[in-house]
What we know:
The chain folds into three domains: about 10-130, Gyrase A, domain 2 (2-Layer Sandwich), CATH 3.30.1360; about 140-215 and about 395-445, Four Helix Bundle (Hemerythrin (Met), subunit A), CATH 1.20.120.430; about 225-390, P-loop containing nucleotide triphosphate hydrolases (Rossmann fold, 3-Layer(aba) Sandwich). It is built from 16 helices and 13 strands. The protein has helices at about 30-40, 100-110, 120-125, 135-145, 150-160, 160-185, 195-215, 220-225, 235-245, 290-305, 320-330, 355-360, 375-390, 400-420, 425-445, 450-455; strands spanning about 10-15, 20-30, 40, 55-65, 70-80, 90-95, 115, 225-230, 265-270, 270-280, 305-310, 335-340, 365. The strands form two sheets. Strands 3-4-5-6-2-1-7 form a seven-stranded mixed beta sheet, with helices on one face. A six-stranded mixed beta sheet has the order 9-10-8-11-12-13, with helices on both faces. A hairpin with an 8-residue loop joins strand 1 and strand 2 (about 20-30). Helix 4 runs antiparallel to helix 5 (about 150-160) and helix 6 packs antiparallel against helix 15. The protein is flat, with a radius of gyration of 30 Å.
Amino acid sequence: MIHAHDDQTIIAQCTPCGAGALALIRLAGLDALTVADKISKLASTSQKITNVATHTINFGHVVGKNKAIIDQVLFLVMHGPKTFTGQDTVEITCHNNQFIIDAIIQEAIKNGARLAQAGEFTKQAFLNKKIDLTQAEAINELICAHTQEALKKSLAQLEGSFSQWIDSIQKKLLHALSLCEASFEFLEEDINFDSHIKKIIDKVLQEIEKSQTQYGHQKQIKDGVRVALIGTVNAGKSSLFNTLVQHDRAIVTEIAGTTRDVIETGVYEQGTYITFVDTAGLRQTKDRIESEGIKRSFAEAEKADIILLLFDGSRNIDDKELEVYQKLYTQYTNKIISLSTKSDTQKKNNITREKQKQIFKDILPISIVSGHHLEELKKNIFEKIHELFKYGTMPFLINKRQHLLLCNVQQALIDLKKNMHGPLEHEIVAIHLKDSLEKLTELTGKTISELSLDSIFKNFCVGK
């Protein structure tokens, strides 16, 4: 049995450490108002935190030993249960100096509070039934969102989009269960609910399968997009990389094989966080260090959401290089944007048309020096990103825990369906349906253990 720790008064900094004008500290729990009284002095000297109206902002000071002023602050006073955690809460807005922040927190701890654990405010909100577990997880997704699409879906999930979807699944399974129970009452009559029960289970399986199919596409929405630059040595990968990230991050020389490790840099553009990855050049080599770099290039091709496959357009391609390109192109066709570099230096096309057809589809000639087709390349990249995102039509994002639980429910229903040929044994079907419903309730946290709960909230930041 999980209980809310209503007797615990906790405090933590909610805003991130670092530069900025203001910081916010949250104090919540049964004694939050009393603790705030002990460390505060309001501008109106006759007033105390415990006496001011709820949901009001009050100007004053945080004071320490002998009433020495620690900082000039605003106190936002909120009485439970109409607060985020459901408990009495005081949020202190102070100047963003870490010495001040630490002094305020230490003063509160001296007067009865304790430092909050990671995710403890959100955990209290869940335990006090202000939100369910999927909404709690959506808060963490919201904070960590790397794309506008992830932000939109996390907000929808916080409002209950995933909870409503789970609720609709539960209602369907409960309806099937009620039909099983009703079948016992009509054993001697010519009334049969078997076809209705089978239709409901098929419908639920279709909905779960749809959500599971989209799980693979959601990585890009949640974490942003990974774009790897891959090609032969001295093909201009590092120059293009520096151009795309608008920063001289990679070394650019005429010496073949300069980049021997993977270099990556993230940029935020058009509502999406994009990680560009510069890789070692592809060629046969006895240099063990460079060989390892080439292995990493192939590993990056596997991890990438989009591959910019570059070929040095100023020279011919040899058979060994052709073999490597063909391998990459065969494996990752849908990921690839094909580029022929150094178009400004090409007096004539040195690539044989036959070989070009063997390797590339819709090859785009570009030049870093002249800027030829660079805008078109960026347009192509964002078209690919749009293709990645368009599959995510569900109004919510599924994390690994939710995905695995849905897999369990899905498998339980598949196993049930295998035994549903001919007249149904309603008692056995009812047992399987109850088992599926129990698994489903773990998603929202209605039947989750304390240990499982702790493992979820430990990944939150302290101030949440």
